[in-house]
């Protein structure tokens, strides 16, 4: 055990990306002053703009705002939502156990329930002041290259996800340590200056010997669960029409869909979910989470998440074959589709509409697309043909080296991320008691999240840096109304 403890691997931003990557996103010369007395544009409120999920929208702004079924659900369909909710919240236990339909956890795992990471159906946060990674942060692992289906190649000993916990008798894979370094302050117009904190991740107490030297790792925090069925209902054709991989319109913003392997359909499809659009649909995402996060097999993934080197893991008792049956997997998928988006607060206020104008002027909408209409999603009449306001294009964008994880995920490169939807953003503090953002929760506020933007979003970030304090405050007020 002592020698295993010494086998540690640290990957910092500098070592996992290209050499000589600039870590501080903005240049540090002071921004050009913009006078604060120029009248600000006030954008008009569009019809139904506040009802972000169309007819599915709920009017809640309390700590349970992300736990509601879509508003237009029927009584019969609500019972499916509740069955899925029970499966989402339940703690799985190791087998053998008397709870036959709840066992099979592990042998290697990360958490015992979906809700343990998706707290309140909101977003995870790093634990401030603790070196140990919190439950909602997981580390994806791979070697350079792709398998026959374009998927990342798992690390041979540890697999494709690092598992910090295990059932009795099986060694855990190890622990994740996070440290933050304060970066030089960034100056903004006015008196504000902001110092971002840059994370590095170290895998320690390795239970199965050293990792491959050229392992790639991608730290990712649990994402909010609201409105996902509506995102699933946006037609492929819409995403393809938004894509501009060669920047033909010359606005500096490209955007392309990820293409991932669907096990269910046995073919390549557009990716939509996960921080790199690395999952095709919500059933896959649920089955992937059951296997990768809880060690539970399901009809989509029948093989336990143990590598050839992990013999104790392979010999572990099974909780049925598969451990989660087709019915329970389907309820988890239905539940993930039917969680409602809360309405905006104060969308018609003048300062909020000033912020909306600032959002459009800074080019944020080039990626965070405000609105679209869903298509027909078979099996989900509630979600079909709705005017929605997700503030995403679901496409991959290069956000620069400072945010890069240096790890390919299907067609997403190490610098690319999917534009995250911004609906529900302003309720983060109410639902989760924190304001941490971005794929690994490194940003402590919305302003910090914006200042991390680079790559295709450099011009947007610089526009925010140069805004007068009044305009920037309006922008943040607008974002808080989402
Ligand atoms: C260990 C913590 C953890 C557990 C447990 C967990 N998740 Fe997640 N979830 C995450 C992380 C991290 C992501 C982002 C994954 C990525 O980018 O690859 C995510 C992403 C998702 C998404 C995609 C959201 C989006 O906006 O694209 C869905 C849906 C989801 N999880 C559902 C589930 C379900 C259902 C379960 C239980 C079967 C579950 N999760 C269990 C951490 C967790
Ligand atoms: C070129 C595309 C692009 C542009 C332009 C852009 N963003 Fe983003 N935005 C992204 C991507 C991609 C991420 C995710 C990055 C990550 O997690 O590492 C993101 C993340 C965010 C987040 C954090 C969301 C979350 O769930 O953690 C906020 C807030 C945000 N952007 C606001 C803005 C604002 C405001 C503007 C305009 C000033 C803007 N963005 C411009 C692509 C863009």
- Bin the strand percentage: 5-15%
Radius of gyration: 22 Å
Give the end-to-end Cα distance, rounded to a whole number of Å: 49 Å
Tally of separate domains = 1
Helix coverage percent: 10-25%
Q: Tell the overall outline.
A: globular
Which sheet architecture does the biggest sheet show?
Answer: 3 strands, antiparallel
Organism: Corallococcus terminator
GO molecular function: cytochrome-c peroxidase activity; electron transfer activity; heme binding; metal ion binding
Protein name: Thiol oxidoreductase
Keywords: Heme, Iron, Metal-binding
Question: In words, what does this structure look like?
Answer:
GO terms for molecular function: cytochrome-c peroxidase activity; electron transfer activity; heme binding; metal ion binding. Residues 30-39 have a biased composition (Acidic residues). InterPro entries: Cyt_c-like_dom, Cyt_c-like_dom_sf, Cytochrome_c_Peroxidase/MauG, DHOR. This is Thiol oxidoreductase. The protein is 23% helix and 13% strand. The protein has 13 helices and 16 strands. It has helices at 2-6, 13-16, 75-89, 228-232, 236-242, 282-294, 311-315, 326-337, 350-361, 428-432, 446-452, 458-466, 469-480, and strands at 9-11, 108-109, 137-146, 152-153, 165-166, 175-182, 186-187, 193-194, 197-204, 216-221, 259-262, 267-270, 372-373, 387-388, 396-398, 416-418. The chain has a three-stranded antiparallel beta sheet. Strands 4-3-10 form a three-stranded antiparallel beta sheet, with no helix packed on it. The protein has a two-stranded antiparallel ribbon with strand order 2-5. β3 (137-146) and β4 (152-153) form a beta hairpin. α3 (75-89) packs across α8 (326-337), α6 (282-294) packs across α8 and α9 (350-361) packs across α13. The structure holds heme C (2 copies). One heme C (HEC) binds at residues 253, 275, 359, 362-364, 366-368, 397, 399, 403, 417, 419-420, 422, 425, 437-439, 446, 449-450, 453, 456-457, 460, 464, 479.
